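Workshop exercise sheet. Pairs work together: one partner reads the sequence aloud, the other fills in the structure field after running the prediction. Swap roles for the next sheet.
Pair: D.N. / O.F.
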Amino acid sequence: MAQASFRVGGRVQGVGFRAWTRDQAVALGLDGHAFNLPGGDVDVVVAGEAAAIDALAARLLHGPALARVDRLDRQAHDAPVAPGFLTG
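Structure field:
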């Protein structure tokens, strides 16, 4: 099982980005979370098949219709990831 952490910047808070990310991740069979960060970014952590994580990364670059993604930073993640997908 692969894991990754993403920090998404731009207009990504208050536009349904976290709920959209959850829907995309669940559709791809990924576990993890999407949380708002102070300063306006969103933290996304996922675990699952590497190809599914890559597919989510490609989707995160575009986001939902009302979002504008200016930056997507990806890092390895090695802490435990709980089953399911949380937003907060």
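Discussion prompt: The mean pLDDT is 98. What would you look at next?
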